[in-house]
Structure formats: structure tokens, C-alpha cells
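TA notes, week 10

Several of you asked for a full example with nothing omitted. So below is the full record: C-alpha cells for the whole chain, then the designed sequence directly under it. When grading your own attempts, check the secondary structure regions first.
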């Protein structure tokens, strides 16, 4: 975890059984994208604790099993430097898995990766961190995350992150391009068909570094429970200094028709 937002440590408890799986898998980016339907959270098919990071290469399908941290992976706050539950090698695909609590630092993608139908019941330090190089491409397809005291997705490496058919609740920032990493990149993020539930407090869908020429594209965003418009679709930074928000023709690529409030 590295970003401009302030850490918040808090206690977490395992969530109970959830409703059956809902979000469908869609295209990574389309024009005139449909609005997102409300998410139905999945019921875990068993639970397994782990005290050491699980390495994934190739494709791994866990059939909706829930994993949670124990021992050295039992952290549930915003402390820096926590290890992840899963570490994905370049090109790995992780699918049909639920991360329970505590979730430590979630998932690390060391290069290009795909997270398909992955759900976070109670985000730890971050849900996932993307650490590949300039040419890396990351896909988050389906799934959802909630109870993120800070960020959901942290982009520390280079490349492009595509997030589609994803649900997010009780969060501060869905995506953050690292503002203070020792090696910096120009990063891209594409959001398509995202279901957002606001809490009445300030939150951000994306935070990008305009001084690094980052680009965020938003399509088919549905925001619920946000009568006060507290959810900022695109927050602009110069590294860790906020410098405005809203659509433009260079960095924050979306229009009012791409955001639906319900």
C-alpha cells in the first residue's frame, strides 16, 4: 500500500455466508456500455486459513473457496509491507475465489495477470497490487470488494489495468496509481460496467497522476446511495497532491452519460 490517502486501522470479523453468485463476466472495454446491475455476493464453498503466501502460476480455479490469513498473514489493518494471501506469476489467472478476513495484502500480481470472479469480503491493506513492468496488462473480470478502509486496487508497476463487471462497497478509493513509488510509470486504467454503492462520505473511483500522464477511461458506471455526490469519479494528483477532479480530454476520459446515479 502506497498512496496519498490516510491509513485507517480497524478491527475486522469474518463475514457470514453470502447470497449466491450474481455478476456476469463481460467485455473489458466497450463503447456505450450498459449500466451495472446490483451485485449478488457469493456463498463460499468451504473456508481455508493460510499462514504463508500461496504462489500461483498458470490458471488456478478454486471453485469459490474462501481463503483468509492466519499467523503472519493475520494482519487486517493498513500497516505497510504486509505479505499477500496470493502471489501471481507473470501471466497467471486466478479465478472463482473469495478472500475473507483477515486478508493481509490481498493479491500481488508480479506481471500481467487475470483475476476472474474474485471477491473480497473485507479488504485488508489493499485488495490487489499490480507490480508488472511497462508492458504489463492486468484484467479484473467480475467479482467485487467491500470494507476497504483505504484502497481496493493499488497500481505500483506500469502497464494497463482493465476492470469490468465489478462491484464495490464501503471503500475510500477503488483504484490508485501510486503517488510515491521509488520507480514511477505512466499508467492506464479502464473501468467498464462498475456497480458502486456509496456510504455518504467522500470516496474516489480512480486516483491518477496527471503529472505522469496517467489516463483513466470510465464507461457504464452505476453509483447507488450517493444523493450528495460524494463519490468522485476521477481524482487528479501530482504524485500525492490533489489537483482537481472531473472529466477532460487528456487524463480523465468520461462524460456525464457514463455515470448513472440510482
Amino acid at each position: 500500500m502506497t498512496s496519498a490517502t490516510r491509513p485507517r486501522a480497524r478491527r475486522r470479523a469474518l463475514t457470514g455466508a453470502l447470497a449466491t453468485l450474481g455478476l456476469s463476466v463481460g467485455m473489458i472495454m466497450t463503447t456505450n456500455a450498459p449500466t451495472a446491475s446490483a451485485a449478488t455476493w457469493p456463498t463460499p464453498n468451504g473456508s481455508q486459513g493460510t499462514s504463508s503466501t500461496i504462489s500461483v502460476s498458470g490458471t488456478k480455479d478454486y471453485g469459490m473457496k474462501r481463503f483468509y490469513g492466519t499467523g503472519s498473514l493475520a494482519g487486517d489493518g493498513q500497516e505497510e509491507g504486509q505479505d499477500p494471501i496470493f502471489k501471481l506469476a507473470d501471466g497467471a489467472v486466478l479465478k472463482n475465489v473469495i478472500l475473507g478476513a483477515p486478508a493481509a495484502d490481498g493479491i500481488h500480481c508480479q506481471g500481467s495477470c487475470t483475476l476472474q470472479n474474485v471477491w473480497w469480503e473485507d479488504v485488508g491493506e489493499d485488495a490487489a497490487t499490480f507490480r508488472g513492468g511497462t508492458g504489463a496488462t492486468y484484467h479484473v473480470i467480475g467479482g467485487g470488494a467491500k470494507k476497504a478502509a483505504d484502497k481496493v486496487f493499488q497500481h505500483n508497476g506500469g502497464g494497463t489495468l482493465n476492470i469490468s463487471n465489478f462491484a464495490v462497497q464501503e471503500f475510500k478509493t477503488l483504484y490508485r496509481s501510486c503517488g510515491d513509488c521509488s520507480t514511477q510509470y505512466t499508467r492506464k486504467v479502464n473501468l467498464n460496467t462498475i456497480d458502486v454503492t456509496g456510504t455518504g462520505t467522500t470516496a474516489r473511483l480512480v486516483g491518477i497522476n496527471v503529472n505522469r500522464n496517467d489516463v483513466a477511461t470510465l464507461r457504464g458506471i452505476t453509483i447507488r446511495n450517493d444523493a450528495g455526490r460524494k463519490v468522485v469519479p476521477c481524482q487528479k494528483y501530482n504524485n500525492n497532491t490533489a489537483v482537481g477532479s472531473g472529466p477532460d480530454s487528456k487524463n480523465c476520459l468520461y462524460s456525464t452519460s457514463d455515470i448513472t446515479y440510482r
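The first strand starts at residue 47 and ends at 50. Use that as a sanity check on your answer.
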